[in-house]
Design brief:
It is a single chain. The protein has 332 residues and is α/β, with parallel strands linked by helices. It has a single domain (13-330), classed as TIM Barrel, CATH 3.20.20. 27% of the residues lie in helices and 17% in strands. The chain has eleven helices and twelve strands. It is globular and about 55 Å long. The structure holds S-adenosylmethionine (SAM) and iron/sulfur cluster. Iron/sulfur cluster is lined by residues 29, 31-33, 36-37, 75-77, 103, 125, 327-328.
Length: 332
């Protein structure tokens, strides 16, 4: 190992320190949301190339030694990994803050575990409060289980955020219903602008902008109250007067939030992505399997990070994002 890389913070050429790692535990999923896993099929990672539990823990430890203090477990669907419980127990020993993004189907199996290890932050994807619409988006019928698990998580006083990808003409009519959901519940609903990835037939004509969400909420509920935005927050956050919960908007397309970006992604096959939209990937798993130290590789990779959206500054470019992975494989 090059000694001067050990325990050194991961800082890019714009001075941004990277302290937040999102790990895709698997690219497999028990849903097929059309904006994420295109129906015409996605190529899945060959099983031997998927990181084992030991490899995930060891690579995460390297990141923690380099200043990562928060790890979000995502996928694909992270809860379908057979060794999920053991894995999360091992990761909890690293002393980082663990968070989870899930579709919620299997959550009830893990509530006790989460309480025991102190995992309290859970983002649950729910694109519709209407069963038929939800099944149309997810292409599978688990709606009742997801709703039941969302209510259980709220009852257990977990910090629950609902993720909603807004698609025009599909679920945008439900913006007021989701805001209503925050009336008596101390949860956050996060509206996400539809983003382009390989094969997901992205077209901004199908997207719903941040400004559109704000004007819709104001027209139904009156003046909204801006909430403080933590430094690395990826959403603009608001509250409707008198509501127990709040709402946020992730506006990657119309108002990207790259200037304070502190995120790194690790795919299920052990490739580091320094940006959600980066086509370049840095293999950490092969060097790790070959017994090499990966500190220096991480530091060199982060220097390549561009300021915003991997260089797609003014617009999203098909010739660029079609070279990226599908979202289930990146780990959104
Ligand atoms: N399966 C888990 C879930 O759905 O929460 C975790 C993985 S999923 C890829 C993570 C998040 O990415 C979800 O909230 C999902 O809605 C979001 N996502 C997937 N494709 C997207 C797209 N094209 N644009 C915006 N968000 C997307
Ligand atoms: Fe699966 Fe999540 Fe993608 Fe839906 S958004 S297909 S639940 S990985």
């Amino acid at each position: 190992m090059t000694a001067n890389y050990m325990n050194k913070r991961i800082i890019d050429s714009f001075g941004r320190q990277h302290s937040y790692l999102r790990i895709s535990l698997t690219d497999r999923c028990n849903l097929r949301c059309f904006y994420c896993m295109p129906e015409d099929g996605v190529k899945l990672i060959d099983k031997p190339n998927i990181m084992t539990m030991e490899e995930i823990v060891a690579i995460s430890k390297t990141f923690a030694d380099l200043g990562v203090d928060t790890i979000r477990l995502t996928g694909g669907e992270p809860l379908i990994r057979k060794d999920f419980e053991e894995l999360v127990r091992e990761l909890a020993r690293l002393g980082v803050s663990l968070k989870l993004t899930t579709n919620g189907i299997l959550l009830d199996r893990f509530f006790d575990l989460f309480r025991e290890i102190g995992l309290n932050n859970v983002n649950i994807s729910l694109d519709s409060l209407d069963k038929a619409r939800s099944v149309f988006i997810n292409k599978r019928d688990y709606f009742d289980r997801i709703i039941a698990n969302i209510h259980k998580a709220i009852d257990l006083k977990m910090n629950v955020k609902l993720n909603i990808v807004l698609i025009k003409g599909v679920n945008d009519s439900e913006i007021p219903d989701f805001i209503d959901f925050t009336r008596n519940k101390n949860i956050t609903v996060k509206f996400i602008e539809f983003m382009p990835f390989k094969g997901n037939h992205w077209d901004w004509g199908k997207g719903v902008s941040r400004d559109n969400v704000i004007s819709t909420v104001e027209s139904h509920f009156g003046t909204i109250i801006p909430l403080p935005n933590p430094k690395h927050s990826t959403s603009l956050n608001y509250k409707v007067y008198g509501h127990a919960g709040s709402f946020g908007i992730i506006s990657t397309i119309t108002h990207p939030f790259c200037s304070e970006c502190n995120r790194i992604r690790l795919t299920a096959d052990g490739k580091m992505k320094y940006c959600l939209f980066a086509n370049a990937e840095t293999d950490l798993l092969t060097p790790y399997r070959n017994g090499r130290s990966i500190d220096e590789i991480i530091h060199e990779a982060i220097q390549l990070k561009k300021f915003s959206r991997d260089g797609m500054v003014d617009k999203m470019e098909p010739e660029h994002y079609e070279q990226n992975r599908t979202m289930n494989s990146i780990g959104g």
